[in-house]
TrEMBL record:
Entry keyword Protein biosynthesis: no
Active site: 124
Gene Ontology CC annotations of this record: cytosol
Biological process (GO), any one: DNA-templated DNA replication
Name of this chain's protein: DNA polymerase IV
Domain UmuC span(s) in chain numbering: 23-205
Enzyme class, first EC level, given as a word: transferase
Source species: Aeriscardovia aeriphila
NCBIfam families named in the record: PRK02406.1
Domain of life: Bacteria
Function summary: Poorly processive, error-prone DNA polymerase involved in untargeted mutagenesis. Copies undamaged DNA at stalled replication forks, which arise in vivo from mismatched or misaligned primer ends. These misaligned primers can be extended by PolIV. Exhibits no 3'-5' exonuclease (proofreading) activity. May be involved in translesional synthesis, in conjunction with the beta clamp from PolIII.
Site (Substrate discrimination): 32
Cofactor: record remark: Binds 2 magnesium ions per subunit.
Keywords: Cytoplasm, DNA damage, DNA repair, DNA replication, DNA-binding, DNA-directed DNA polymerase, Magnesium, Metal-binding, Mutator protein, Nucleotidyltransferase, Transferase
Gene (name only): dinB
């Protein structure tokens, strides 16, 4: 979902010259909320807000267009959203379902066009359709077909931008929303971006905007009148100045990167109420591990490093990490490490109360670092992430020398757990992500 500023001045037909326009940007409209409405037809026409924990705490992940009319937007506190739109339908995030649909859209629809795809988030991707034009003839025809297929198969809408480079395709899709298609002819790139706010250029944030405003530069049109050297001097960086000057001419040197491996996968959740109940904290971490393990299996990846994040009631936070000797793909492996890291993360608050980042530096923690009991302070949020990701098919597994088939971290134990979790995946795919979960004994709780 794009949150960039949009301009009514550019929401028009810019012509039909498709020459050189080989990049498409496909962006789902209010993706999470749209999927919830699609599977709950009774919500059609109502404001739908997705985020938080059972709609109580946390932040808004997605709000549909009906909710946005009340001032609700993504990254907003759920409490604020409830105050602005008390009549809205507030739903929890179902990452597994959204990821599954995303995978279907980009592999079963978009990939039918070409393999030149760069998926940049769960709901958007860039496509280079140049190799497909011999068959399809027209990039506009491709964009319309994708929109039609997404709607017919999943009952949601998407917007498509078409341009001569990735920047223009992205700007076009943003201004085509919702449920539209916009083509910007290559010859009109500079004319198109001239009408946009500076913040509409992806990559221009508050800091850069403030720096430019100190030079009395507040619009794309003003930058178009400057030389590249002048822009470099204003922003204080040759690289950023070069990029910004080009972008304000409607040009970009960015190249499409296909099949880029994710750097990390994570999940964090906010408690309905701050808690110091260690059992509740561990239960939430288990849910996070379960979610991450499913995503690893879906993407056929394994991980090496597990990190635990704790945010305390005073909004300070701590993170602790540990790298495994064996590749990780199932939730039991992940939770064993999370259990070892949790006491050290909780103890960080006692050592650094009032510090804005009570343990941000990542630490390697030995296998028995967290075995001593810790009495936790009140915790607001907890989460797990994994990194050091590699393709499962190319990762060698070195079994432990002290082989014991009663332990979960050996080859036999790993195979059993992987088989169990794949079976759970099949049940969830058919009946929903909350249909089944591992019982406490399957985590080897004491």
């Amino acid at each position: 979902m794009s949150t960039a500023p949009r301009s009514q001045a550019v929401r028009k037909d810019w012509g039909h010259d498709e020459s050189g326009c080989t990049f498409l940007h496909v962006d789902m409209d209010a993706f999470f909320a749209s999927l919830e409405t699609a599977r709950h037809p009774e919500l059609v026409g109502r404001p739908v807000i997705v985020g938080g924990v059972e709609g109580v705490r946390g932040v808004v992940s997605t709000a549909n267009y009906e909710a946005r009319r009340y001032g609700v937007h993504s990254a907003q506190a759920m409490a604020t959203a409830r105050r602005l739109c008390p009549q809205g339908a507030f739903l929890p995030v179902d990452h597994h379902y959204y990821s599954h649909v995303s995978h279907e859209i980009f592999t079963q629809i978009v990939a039918k066009i070409t393999d030149q795809i760069e998926q940049v988030s769960v709901d958007e991707a860039y496509i280079n359709v140049a190799p497909a034009l011999r068959e399809w003839k027209s990039p506009r025809a491709i964009g319309e077909w994708i929109r039609q297929q997404v709607y017919q198969r999943f009952h949601i809408t998407c917007s498509v931008g078409i341009g001569s480079n990735m920047l223009m395709a992205k700007l076009a899709s943003t201004n085509a929303k919702p449920n539209g298609l916009l083509l910007v002819p290559q010859a009109r790139n500079a004319e198109f971006v001239r009408l946009l706010d500076l913040r509409a250029i992806n990559g221009v944030g508050p800091a850069l905007e403030k720096r430019l405003s100190s030079w009395a530069v507040t619009t794309v049109a003003q930058i178009q009148e400057l030389s590249e050297a002048q822009v470099v001097r204003m922003v204080g960086s040759r690289q950023i100045g070069h990029w910004l000057w080009l972008a304000c001419q409607g040009e970009s040197e960015r190249v499409l990167v296909t099949h880029a491996l994710e750097k990390s996968i994570g999940q964090e959740m906010t408690f309905p109420e701050d808690t110091n109940d260690l059992a509740k904290i561990r239960a939430l971490l288990r849910n996070c591990c379960d979610h991450i393990a499913r995503r690893l299996r879906e993407k056929q990846l394994v991980a090496r490093t597990v990190s635990v994040k704790i945010r305390f009631a005073d909004l300070t936070y701590a993170t602790r990490s540990q790298t495994s000797r064996v590749p990780i793909q199932n939730s039991v492996q992940m939770m064993q490490i999370a259990d070892q890291l949790l006491p050290a993360a909780l103890a960080a608050w006692k050592r650094g109360r009032g510090v804005a980042d009570a343990g941000a530096s990542r630490e390697e923690v030995s296998a028995d670092a967290g075995r001593s009991a810790v009495s936790p302070t009140f915790v607001r949020l907890a989460g797990v992430s994994v990194s050091g990701l590699t393709e499962q098919s190319t990762t060698l597994y070195q079994p432990e020398l002290d082989f014991d088939d009663t332990q979960e971290n050996n080859e036999t134990g790993l195979k059993k757990n992987n088989e169990l979790e794949k079976a759970l995946d099949a049940v969830r795919a058919k009946y929903g992500s909350s249909a089944v979960r591992r019982g406490a004994t399957s985590w080897r709780d004491e």
